[in-house]
Structures are given as C-alpha cells and as structure tokens.
Amino acid sequence: MVVGTGASGSMAADGVEERKQMSALIVDDNSVIQKIHKVIMTKLGFETQVVDNGKMAVDLHTSGCSFDVILMDMEMPVMNGIEATKELRAMGVETMIVGVTACSLESEKQAFKEAGLNECFVKPLNMEEAKSLVKKLNKEDN
Amino acid sequence: MAYVGQLQRKFVEYTKSLYREGIVDKQFTQLHNLQDESNPDFAEEVVTLFFTDSQRLLNELTNALEQQDVDFNTVDAYVHQFKGSSSSVGAQRVKDLCISFRTLCEQQNKELCLRCLQQVKLEYASFKSKLESLFQLEKQIVEAGGTIPTID
After folding, report:
1. Given CB atoms, is B89 within the 8 Å cutoff of chain A?
2. Which residue intervals define the domain HPt in the entry (chain B) (predicted)?
3. Cross-chain residue pair B45–A35, CB shorter than 8 Å
4. Arithmetic mean of pLDDT, A100-119
5. What are the CA-CA distances from residue B119 to residues A27, B94, B126 (Å)?
6. Does A108 touch chain B (CB under 8 A)?
C-alpha cells in the first residue's frame, strides 16, 4: 500500500528540511500506458502505484491512501475516469487529478474536465507535460 | 570496427525509413528518450508488451465480428484500446486505421468493419516485423561492441 501524504518536508537532524518523496497513482486499464506513465513518473522522483480501473482508485482512497497526483484514464471497465473523478471529489479528495485520454471528441473531454479534473492531456503523457505537473505541485506546496 | 560502422549506418537508414514511410511517429522517439542506464531496453520492452496486448485485441475483435449479431459497442471498445496502445508506441499507421475503424463501428457496418480489421491485421503485422528487425539490428550492434546511434 503506498501512501503519499503530500510534498511537505520535515526537518533532518542537521536542520536541513527534507522533501518527502511525492507519490503518483496511475489509473489505466492499458498495460502499455501503465508502463510508460510509471517510468515517466518514476524518473521525476515519484513513488508510483498502478490500478486498472476507477473503482480501485476510489477503494484505495476509501481505505485511507492518499497521493500527490492521480493520472486518470477516461475509458475503463468497472468504473470509468469520469465516474471515479466525481466520486473522489465527492469524498473530499483534493489531490491533483490529471485526465489522460485517447478521446479526441471535445465534448467527451469537456465532460471529463467537468467531473473535477485539474488538467487533461492526450495519452500518453510526455515528459514535458509531466514536468509541468511537478512545477504546479511544487507551486501549490510553496 | 568497420563492421560496427556498417551496422550503425544500416540502423540509421532503417530507422529513418520507418519515420519517412509513416510506420512510426514522434511517440516512438519519446519511448527511446525515456531509456537510460536503469531502463536501457525500455522501448523494446514497451513495444513487446504492445505486441502481446495487440494479439489479444485482434483475437477479441475477430471473435466479436464473427458473431451473427455483432455487438458494435464491444467492437468499438476493443478498437479504442488498440488505438490507445498503438498511439502510445508510435505505431502511426495502425493508429490511423483504428480511427477509421471506430467510424465504421459507429455506422454499424459489419462488412466494412471486417475489411478494416483485415487491413489493421496486415498493417500491424508489417509494424511488428519491421520493429523486430530494428531491435535485432540494435542487438547486433551491441554484440559487435558498438553503441546505438541516436537519430535526430
């Protein structure tokens, strides 16, 4: 079980503030995308956890897990990204949720954003887009 | 050394031809850019995973379209997955065919869907064969003591 409790730091013995490792939850049913997103986020220093659908993401949060960022696919079995995002926001989860979708229809992307996303990208995420997320997370932390 | 140089030139030309012919797009470059010392074979690993996933999806699509009453929502869901995977490894032509395939699913045209599936299978087989040749070339270069050239 991975728990990331935010990017806030703590004081080390020599008085230098240490930054806790940030955590990312990757929610996607496609094993190729899972692998790519895992490597990108790991390279940027995140501890990662991967789940196959939106219900597993909601269940993790219900059991008390939290993450610094969630990469949420839109179309998944059991519970899709729109439903999962709505449920997480209804639960009070304020984590940055980033939609990643292969959908090209603006109307579908709009519905996804209105569910409560902070950002939405076409999948797969690339390194530049992922770095922009880290910048935003660091800004929020400061 | 001359042999390594020959292999490296062959690799560069072959890779450039894949881009030129639209077999791969810039997402394939992105996969290579993610390779490093801790993940030296990342691109090959991801593409190999794509091959496994694709075989499953093509089998599912074949089954789904062989039904007397085709469930086009099911077919579309598989095509959507295939489009996502193919675009994530840079398989440009396969991805473009999936886009057309989805339109045919919306039209619920079984005959045209079957024809499109055949085209997808052919294009996928071509992609697989070419990428396997590329990875084989990479192995030969490394075994001969050379390094894999980077392509701009």
Report:
1. yes
2. 39-148
3. yes
4. 88
5. 31, 9, 11
6. no
Q: What residues of chain B lie within 8 A of the CB of A130, using their CB?
A: none
Radius of gyration of chain A (CA): 15
* A9-35: b (≥16 Cβ within 10 Å) or e: eeeeeeeeeeeeebbbbbbbbbbbbbb
* Domain boundaries of chain B, sorted by first residue: 2-143
Angstrom distance (rounded) from CA A94 to CA A89: 7
Residue B88: list chain A partners with CB under 8 A.
Answer: 30, 32-33, 36, 123-124
Q: A35: closest CA among A124, A106, A108?
A: A124
State how far the Cα of B16 lies from the Cα of B150, in Å rounded to an integer: 11
Please name the amino acid found at residue A131: K
Interchain pair B49, A35: CB under 8 A: yes
pLDDT confidence tier of residue A18, bands split at 50, 70 and 90? low
List the CATH code of the domain at B2-143: 1.20.120.160
Among A33, A35, A40, beta carbon nearest to B84 = A33
Task: Flag if A127 and B34 touch (Cβ within 8 Å).
Answer: yes
ipTM value: 0.86
